[in-house]
Amino acid sequence: xxxxxxxxxxxxxxxxxxxxxxxxxxxxxxxxxxxxxxxxxxxxxxxxxxxxxxxxxxxxxxxxxxxxxxxxxxxxxxxxxxxxxxxxxxxxxxxxxxxxxxxxxxxxxxxxxxxxxxxxxxxxxxxxxxxxxxxxxxxxxxxxxxxxxxxxxxxxxxxxxxxxxxxxxxxxxxxxxxxxxxxxxxxxxxxxxxxxxxxxxxxxxxxxxxxxxxxxxxxxxxxxxxxxxxxxxxxxxxxxxxxxxxxxxxxxxxxxxxxxxxxxxxxxxxxxxxxxxxxxxxxxxxxxxxxxxxxxxxxxxxxxxxxxxxxxxxxxxxxxxxxxxxxxxxxxxxxxxxxxxxxxxxxxxxxxxxxxxxxxxxxxxxxxxxxxxxxxxxxxxxxxxxxxxxxxxxxxxxxxxxxxxxxxxxxxxxxxxxxxxxxxxxxxxxxxxxxxxxxxxxxxxxxxxxxxxxxxxxxxxxxxxxxxxxxxxxxxxxxxxxxxxxxxxxxxxxxx
Length: 496
Ligand code: NAD
Prior knowledge:
Layout: H1 10-17, E1 24-25, E2 28-29, E3 37-41, E4 48-53, H2 57-73, H3 81-97, H4 99-110, H5 114-134, E5 141-146, E6 149-157, E7 160-164, H6 170-183, E8 187-191, H7 198-209, E9 217-219, H8 224-233, E10 239-243, H9 246-259, E11 263-266, E12 271-275, H10 281-293, E13 303-309, H11 313-326, H12 345-360, E14 364-367, E15 370-371, E16 382-383, E17 385-388, H13 394-397, E18 404-410, H14 413-421, E19 428-432, H15 436-445, E20 450-453, E21 472-473, H16 480-485, E22 487-495
Parallel strand pairs: 7-8, 7-10, 8-9, 10-11, 12-13, 12-19, 13-18, 17-18, 19-20
Antiparallel strand pairs: 1-2, 3-4, 5-6, 6-22, 11-21, 14-17, 15-16
The chain binds nicotinamide-adenine-dinucleotide (NAD).
The site of nicotinamide-adenine-dinucleotide has 30 residues, from helix 8 and helix 9.
């Protein structure tokens, strides 16, 4: 459909040529029965990329039925773990072979810098491989030593599992979500965000092309309050995983609660970075500037509150301002761009509104952000910004989801920990110091799912990831913990 750019890969051009991007459900292309569609845009140029079916309850029901049918009949659920692992490795290999194609589609759809989109697809591949491997080495039958009884537990896959994803890391999050579910023997229904449906649609076609069973991976597209709501309310799904805002997370959890479907929630954050006086100022500033500008700050676990020891505060701020001023804002597929657009105009307005309201509530603007213009592109660009002031300020309390950091000073370690923990969120924080004993101490006391030392945004496979409080429920993502979520357990007992 689109004639977006001339330097796209031929496969991407061919993909975008389709007049309607239909995802696969039960191995067949599906569109909305009432013919409704929506458009997805390139956030960097505003151009229409594709037209996509706007599905509703009827199509979601068809997808759940297809997933149930594949669970019951395709043999996926009962395959020996090593054979399922081999099929998942093939899936990972085939995604890897198309890494540049998928990454370009993702970069266009999500406004991501191409190299970052390539990193996301590589992460998807690594996640599938990790779970394909791990699942083979977990015993599903466990003997229990119980006096006077023969007893054991047996783990079974649940059946069709639902997934609702946000727009900031579509491919990467699809991997984090579905890899453990598939490796455990389940089938999946994926609802990508309406802003970024294309990589999921591509994936559903690839699954068919490489002969994964029809109905194993079903993708449904549409708006949140229709398609998303229908997924979260469907009683035929055995598990639900939602990644997105706390507001919608609550709705999804309520709907799942009514059906008694277990729900895993990965929600927003308001992470802190605690910077002690003994750090290398230039290096730490460079890393935090890198974190807050990465994907234009649209990162749930970002360091958005920078708590800096008062001895180095002024120097640290100067260093950050200098570096942030040098960040090149531009179109995401231009090689020299360091920070691309935000996903849509609503998101840009949100960032600008928080800056204005933060200042209205008394925050000082250390580096003025605001709209950025990129010549020749009608995209949603903003400049990075730094605010300072009371942590009670709205811009310090609420998730902005843009390249905005809020600075505050501290003097004592306990004071810094209290400042970090004074939030309803609990996703990820970092601590920066050359004293590793102090780092470990602080890291363990920060109240959140994840603490990082001398780094921010670190996700090695095998380390559980997830949030608490307003940041989520369930956690364990990317590790063996979440694999267990995708098996139900039956206890078997015989009195002796
Ligand atoms: P969002 O909550 O608006 O949308 C997320 C998904 O939910 C989309 O697919 C949307 O269509 C769907 N949805 C919307 N209304 C719905 C409803 N009533 N019922 C069911 N589904 C519905 O979030 P967003 O704006 O796409 O993403 C940004 C948010 O996601 C931020 O808060 C961010 O922190 C969070 N996030 C969290 C993680 C994590 O791992 N914790 C990762 C990425 C993003």
